């Protein structure tokens, strides 16, 4: 596939404005991310609607993870990374260094590619973050642990062994525990970076079902390299290519009738 985003008109048109009636959860305006001198994200403006699942797709190295990490200031942890442009959340530019990262990450939670539960009990994996955020009292914590495990579709499988190590769970269960841990803090937005890539097909479909259920209460942005997954679960899909977003639309449109050839080549697997 030969696409030079610098030469396409799309490059100039990738400010995507969705139906104005839909309330937005978060958006970026002219976002650039640099690692030292290397510009990984070259001015991405996207809007994400509330209570929708949006997939970020594109070849490896197209900067999907970099973009996702920007949304809750996770790139702050990478010393060479510099992020410019605006990230608007509740009318505040959370890319402003004055904005508290800790609070931002409570409201915009993240689940990573490989399940990374703490080496603690199942119960403590969830209670730990809550306690750090000032939640007190056994009854309150018990209730929060139960609710988030139920939301992550894991409660029935673990309710009788809450004090056992989380590391003894299967990969799929560990990933759902990580989702439970993230939602226990009651974020509004959940970012997931290839959350099912390390999982078998059954665990993958359980995670997908969990996400579809969570959509009622959360806005979900997910990076996936699995095209079936993107088309199964997401409402909207953004196609990333070399640090640009070449196309962003309803998932159905992206997969059945994309506007540009590069998207079609990628979603149909013809990409080399
Ligand atoms: N910590 C980092 N330091 C330097 N370059 C990085 C770092 N993380 C990613 N990159 C570079 O940024 C580009 C986008 O990477 P990434 O966001 O991981 O892409 P994707 O998730 O689409 O595979 C790649 O060229 C990658 O090598
Ligand atoms: Mg990635």
What is the secondary structure topology, with strand pairs?
Layout: H1 10-13, E1 24-35, E2 38-49, E3 53-57, H2 64-71, E4 81-89, E5 92-93, H3 101-107, E6 108-111, H4 122-132, H5 138-151, H6 155-158, H7 171-184, E7 189-193, H8 201-214, E8 219-223, H9 227-233, E9 236-241, E10 244-250, H10 251-256, H11 261-267
Parallel strand pairs: 3-8, 3-9, 6-7, 7-8
Antiparallel strand pairs: 1-2, 1-4, 4-5, 9-10
Helix pairs in contact: 4-5, 4-7, 5-7, 7-8
Attribute tags:
single chain; about 270 residues; 11 helices; globular; binds adenosine-5'-diphosphate; binds magnesium ion
How would you describe what is shown here?
- The chain is of the alpha/beta class.
- It is built from eleven helices and ten strands.
- The protein has helices spanning about 10-15, 65-70, 100-105, 120-130, 140-150, 155-160, 170-185, 200-215, 225-235, 250-255, 260-265; strands spanning about 25-35, 40-50, 55, 80-90, 90-95, 110, 190-195, 220-225, 235-240, 245-250.
- A six-stranded mixed β-sheet has the order 6-7-8-3-9-10, sandwiched between helices.
- It starts with 9 loop residues before the first helix and ends in a 5-residue tail after the last helix.
- The protein binds adenosine-5'-diphosphate and magnesium ion.
- Adenosine-5'-diphosphate (ADP) binds near residues 40, 58, 61, 65 and 66.
């Amino acid at each position: 596939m030969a696409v030079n985003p610098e030469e396409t008109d799309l490059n100039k048109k990738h400010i995507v404005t969705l139906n104005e009636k839909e309330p937005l959860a978060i958006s970026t305006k002219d976002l650039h991310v640099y690692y030292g001198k290397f510009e990984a994200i070259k001015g991405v403006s996207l809007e994400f609607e509330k209570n929708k699942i949006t997939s970020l797709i594109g070849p490896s190295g197209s900067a999907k993870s970099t973009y996702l990490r920007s949304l809750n200031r996770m790139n702050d942890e990478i010393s060479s990374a510099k992020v410019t442009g605006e990230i608007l959340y509740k009318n505040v530019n959370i890319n402003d260094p004055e904005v508290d990262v800790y609070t931002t990450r409570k409201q915009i939670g993240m689940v990573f590619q490989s399940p990374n539960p703490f080496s603690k009990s199942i119960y403590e994996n969830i209670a730990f973050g809550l306690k750090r955020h000032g939640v007190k009292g056994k009854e309150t914590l018990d209730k929060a642990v139960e609710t988030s495990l139920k939301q992550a579709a894991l409660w029935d499988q673990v309710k009788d062994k809450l004090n056992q190590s989380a590391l003894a769970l299967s990969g799929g269960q560990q990933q759902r525990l990580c989702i439970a841990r993230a939602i226990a803090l009651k974020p509004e937005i959940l970012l997931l970076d290839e959350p099912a890539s390390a999982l078998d097909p059954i665990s993958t479909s359980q995670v997908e079902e969990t996400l579809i259920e969570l959509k009622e209460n959360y806005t979900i942005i997910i990076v996936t390299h699995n095209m079936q997954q993107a088309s199964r679960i997401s409402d909207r899909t953004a196609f990333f290519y070399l640090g640009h977003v070449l196309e962003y639309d309803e998932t159905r449109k992206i997969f059945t009738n994309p506007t540009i050839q590069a998207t079609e080549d990628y979603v149909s697997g013809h990409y080399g």
